[in-house]
From TrEMBL:
Organism: Eudyptes sclateri (Erect-crested penguin)
Origin superkingdom: Eukaryota
Keyword Iron attributed: no
Gene Ontology CC: endoplasmic reticulum lumen
This protein's name: FAD-dependent oxidoreductase domain-containing protein 2
Length: 675
């Protein structure tokens, strides 16, 4: 009968009319809208399905107490828009300056209603193709050799309308509440439905299950009206300032830690929730016991016949009865709508709430199915910011670039520069780039060297987990070696048990840069592209396999890596050692001298001076260089015979005896004729 019903359903689907799109996006939350923006900018055929009447329906309900924990830093002292995105955790990427979140809220921790308004404007002002009130209830595959990925995705909505897509982008987030079943769990209230009016908890004793931000957010709301609050979870509390993971407990919600440690009745407990049991007495009070105490009792017997832990241990921590128990255990991905043909499997261990995906954000089992946004957080869970807007806005752009290359032959965007601009390019990116800064250890800039290291090609924010597939995924070639620019914290500086405020926690000397603790740039050099095997065998806490050379730019208190001696000079020397070349910049006089005294000119002279490019010489410029110590004063001081004071012969003789002295990089070169 089951086979017959399944066959009939297939026949019904096959006979129904399909609306076709190249790309289908499920979910009009932040990641779905971000994907839609990039698809629209590329003029691709796409549609976004949203079950609600407006985008961002999750934020219309959550967080329950309406305060977001994503910061909205409106002022940084900088006018650089890319730099400012480092401290704007709510805006999506677009070309429209009106769609910056600071225009929607002045609060450092904004109200969730502001996010709802923002997402509505993002969809409407950019005219994104969102189909509202459309709940996708079933997704399956149709094999077809002519399809992009060897199959089409067939989607069915609540009205039995069918859709066919070549690529499927899942941006539904994690919205199914995590529920733990144990004896008495029917007495537990869920975070999604519990009252948010503090007066409803006045004079009550409350137990909260969970230890994330939703649990502490709930506790913070009722902290001042309850008798006391206990919080139980299987793991110890993890503070975001210690783990450097924004999903851990944030300071805005941690008032209960104060009342616990300062002995004001509230407290935290550790224990496996599946070992608990709740018994309700005749007065409606809830008693906490352990499951094994109930294994042999008569289920119809009253509480008086049940052995409680305090009967054997009279100082049992939770011996006092509770008025309410609240579940705050977060959410998980909804696997229910996906047919088994897609093989959408949950992850393992603490990643089981997410679907299994590759570092490219593509399903491990189904080609052409990509997971975006919060649901893609398994790639960097507890490592980086990929589960949050300020992280997945960049990973979504990376996925779009991968799709553009795969299906439309559009290579990953890149820029080619002469090798003399290598140091400048790296310094500029590590000081401005928001994607590198937010998705540290996950996204990296790739520098592909051209033959003989005369030029390089710069690719921004590529997922390092698929570095071995770079040529296939980007359409760019890497035959001559590469640099990888990435941001990292110190190896032993992050963890729930770490003291991140210890004395001498910061490193200030360039020679000790490898010991830097705080977020700082790291440059890896490879003579050839790493293989997939090398990527698999890399150490567990390394983002990349062992390089041929590595350089740490020393951490900086202001995150401003522009100090000539501490930051730029060590970087330049590292690059010169890797490339066996001279990356210094020179005045024309030095290049003139090198032309007579060296067999090979430095790249700056070959690409500038020899091509009649450089600064136009003047007495003012020369005098400035002398006063700054960049050139010796070779102006003649003693004249004899008929030689006029302004004769160049003496100065040229002196020039040939002087050493060439480098200067700092020149950002813009203008044509000048050598006299």
């Amino acid at each position: 009968l089951g086979l017959a019903l399944y066959a009939s359903s297939l026949c019904a689907v096959s006979g129904a009319a399909f609306l076709y799109h190249d790309y289908c996006v499920i979910g009009a939350g932040p990641s779905g809208l971000q994907a839609a923006y990039f698809l629209q900018q590329a003029s691709r055929d796409y549609v976004v399905f949203e079950r609600s009447h407006a985008p961002g329906s999750f934020f219309a309900l959550y967080p329950r107490h309406r305060k977001l924990i994503s910061i909205n830093k409106r002022y940084t002292g900088k006018s650089n828009s890319e730099f400012n995105l480092r401290h704007d955790w709510n805006s999506l990427l677009s070309h429209d300056r009106r769609l910056l979140f600071r225009r929607y809220s002045r609060d450092f921790f904004p109200d969730a209603d502001a996010m709802v308004r923002y997402l509505e404007d993002f969809a409407s002002l950019l005219k994104l193709q969102v189909q509202y009130n459309t709940a996708i209830i079933h997704v399956t595959l149709e094999r077809d050799r002519q399809a992009w990925n060897g199959h089409y995705f067939l989607l069915t909505d609540q009205d039995r309308q069918n859709y066919k897509c070549s690529s499927l982008l899942v941006a539904t987030g994690t919205w199914v509440p995590n529920v733990v079943n144990f004896p008495g769990s029917e007495y537990v209230e869920g975070y999604e439905t519990v009252s948010i009016n503090p007066e409803d908890f006045a004079g009550q004793t409350v137990l909260i299950l969970g230890r994330g931000n939703s649990a502490f957010e709930t506790a913070e709301n009722i902290l001042g009206v309850t008798n006391f609050i206990h919080m139980v979870s299987r793991s110890r509390v993890r503070l975001s300032w210690a783990t450097h993971y924004v999903g851990d407990l944030r300071a805005i919600n941690n008032g209960l830690l104060d009342t616990y440690q300062l002995k004001s009745l509230d407290g935290l407990l550790e224990g496996d929730l599946e070992d608990l049991a709740i018994i309700k007495d005749k007065k409606g009070k809830l008693h906490i016991t352990l499951r094994f105490y109930l294994e042999n009792r008569n289920t119809s017997a009253g509480i008086d016949s049940v052995t409680l832990p305090q009967d054997e241990l009279d100082n049992f921590a939770t011996r006092a009865p509770y008025d309410r128990v609240i579940r705050c255990l977060g959410w998980k991905f909804d696997f229910s709508i996906y047919n088994r043909s897609l093989r959408m499997m949950p992850g393992k261990g603490n990643k089981k709430k997410y679907p299994q995906i590759k570092p490219s954000y593509e399903s491990r089992s189904t080609r052409g199915l990509f997971v975006l946004g919060t649901a893609s957080h398994s790639v960097d869970f507890r490592k980086s910011a990929g589960g949050f807007i300020h992280g997945f806005r960049y990973t979504t752009r990376a996925v779009h670039r991968l799709l553009e290359n795969r299906h439309h032959g559009v290579p990953w965007p890149s820029t080619v520069y002469p090798i003399t601009q290598l140091t400048n390019s790296i310094i500029k990116r590590v000081n401005e780039a928001s994607g590198l800064y937010q998705m540290f250890s996950i996204l990296a800039d790739i520098i592909l060297l051209r033959e003989n290291a005369t030029a390089f090609e710069y690719l921004e924010e590529y997922p390092v987990g698929v570095l071995a597939e770079l040529e296939t995924q980007t359409g760019r070639k890497a035959p001559n070696g590469l640099f990888v620019v990435i941001m990292e914290y110190g190896r032993n500086f992050s963890g729930a048990d770490k003291d991140v405020f210890y004395y001498n926690r910061a490193v200030g000397e360039a020679q000790h840069a490898w010991q830097s603790n705080f977020l700082h740039p790291v440059i890896y050099y490879y003579k050839r592209l790493p293989t997939e095997r090398e990527m698999r065998l890399r150490p567990p806490d390394w983002p990349l396999p062992r390089p041929d050379a590595v350089h740490h730019i020393v951490e900086d208190f202001l995150t401003d890596w522009t100090a000539p001696n501490a930051h730029i000079l060590p970087l330049r020397r590292f690059l010169e050692n890797c490339l066996s070349t001279d990356l210094r910049n020179f005045f024309a006089e030095s290049c003139f001298l090198f032309a007579f005294t060296r067999q090979k000119l430095p790249p700056f002279c070959r690409q500038g001076y020899v091509r009649m490019q450089g600064l136009v010489g003047s007495e003012g410029l020369r005098r400035h260089a002398v006063e700054a110590g960049l050139l010796e004063d070779y102006a003649p001081t003693d004249f004899s015979g008929d030689r006029p004071p302004d004769s160049r012969e003496g100065s040229q003789d002196q020039l040939l005896r002087d050493h060439a002295i480098p200067v700092r990089p020149l950002q813009h070169l203008v044509n000048a004729k050598d006299e």
